[in-house]
Amino acid sequence: MTVCLLLLGAVALTAAVPVPRALTRADWPEREPVVALWVWQCLVATVLMCNLTALVLGAAAVFGTVRDHVFAPAPPAVTAAYDLSAAPVWATVLTLLLACGAAWTTAMLARELVEARRGRGRARAQLRERAPELPGGLEEAARGPLLVLEDEYPDAWWMPGSPPQLVVTTGALHRLTDVQLDAVLTHERDHARAHHDWLLHLSTALATGFPRLPLFAHFCEQTHRLVELAADDTASRRCGHLTTALALIELNQHRGVLSCASSHRLLGERVNRLLEPRPRLGRRHRAVTATVAGLVPLVPLLIAFGPGLTALAA
Asked: Whole-angstrom Cα distance, residue 168 to residue 186?
């Protein structure tokens, strides 16, 4: 059991500190944002699985009630392989810390979901106030997948929900060409199709709850960046790189899309990326990267079940 806890701690520490820093310095995620998002999710899943399995093993060693429930169906040889009868003091302290961390993580996720739901409610109420009044037969249609708002500033966004709703202003309809508008709507539809809102809520909750952990801080920052790049790629594949870049400029020109301000830097990077597309990774390289990343979260399970499988094989 002691060896398992040490191995789980080593894997979690490796996935939480050096790997995220190396990933942020790499240049391939900019070319393959979808694969990069998958890699980040696998890293986070690895750390969470390490903590969860360590919590279960530690609790089974410290508390007899937990041991009886976890190892009830296991043969005596499996229980003996984990040496649960002799739990060191540090295992007790580690178990309590992991339990507190699990409770804190759950609280942060719950708070993020509650705040997101309240925010969507307020936003939808504001949309109902801003939306132009239509005749009775058209009112229900206006609340459908696409909602047009009277506003001189060009803008478009999507409202998460069931179903998600696309919102576009009359300023965007006047400023953008038909092809540019198609690119903007395709970008927003990709956010809805990929359920990027859930990924953003998860990364924000983890970064808020554990601000000093490099993995969660980088995960939040990169997720907000990569979801936009992924949606840009979807729009550019449908409408072209130049059209998508011009639509992005027209839509955000009044915000200073090409300025050097930190709040607008991502917009400038997105425009430059679309105007100067770089060669992407090969299909085989993408498949290998995604497969290896998907196998990483299995490492904590192999470590946790290792002694039991060895005992059964013997």
From this structure: 12
List the structure tokens of 145.
């997948």
Matching residue, tokens 């360590």? 54
CA 33 to chain centre: 12
How much is the CA Rg of the chain, to the nearest whole Å? Answer: 24
Token pair in block for residue 94: 């580690």
3-state secondary structure of 235: helix
Amino acid in position 19: V
Q: Is the model more confident about 143 or about 184?
A: 184
Dist CA 106 CA 112 (whole Å):
10
Q: Is the overall model pTM greater than 0.85, yes or no?
A: yes
Tally Cβ neighbours within 10 Å of residue 210: 18
d(CA 273, CA 244) in angstroms, rounded, equals 11
Residue 190 and residue 174 in contact, taking contact as beta carbons nearer than 8 Å: no
Please, what is the average pLDDT of the chain?
85
